[in-house]
Amino acid sequence: MGRPHDTTEDILLIVSELTSNALRHARPPYALTLSVESGRAGIALSDASPSLPRQHGGRGPLATRGRGLAIIRALGAELFVSPAPLGKQVIAVLTWPE
Predict the structure, then answer these.
(1) How far is CA 17 from CA 2, 13, 68, 96, in A?
(2) Sheet holding 40-47, edge to edge
(3) When comparing pLDDT for 57 and 1, which is higher?
(4) Which of 60, 65, 80, 85 could form a disulfide with 91 if both were Cys (CB 3.0 to 4.6 A apart)?
(5) Would the pLDDT of 20 be above 90?
(6) HEC per residue, the chain
């Protein structure tokens, strides 16, 4: 689809982080939506938990938990949280030059 190879890897990592967070901190049902168009990908994960995600501070570089949102942001993605009637949707938007 005209995206750099490393961007594909970034998208897969974002999907992994969002789904891991949902499985660990939220409750089913879960729904994953991936939208890719020229220069942009949107990854949305819906779950049934109304609890908002939060970024943990003070984690060291060797931490094995609590870094998912920071990783997503470090990849250059914008993060949004949208309330839903039965929970929430966490959305990551990643862009790249065309």
Answers:
(1) 24, 6, 5, 20
(2) 31-37, 40-47, 87-95, 78-84
(3) 57
(4) 80
(5) yes
(6) CCCCHHHHHHHHHHHHHHHHHHHHHCCCCCEEEEEEECCEEEEEEEECCCCCCCCCCCCCCCCCCCCHHHHHHHCCCEEEEEEECCEEEEEEEEECCC
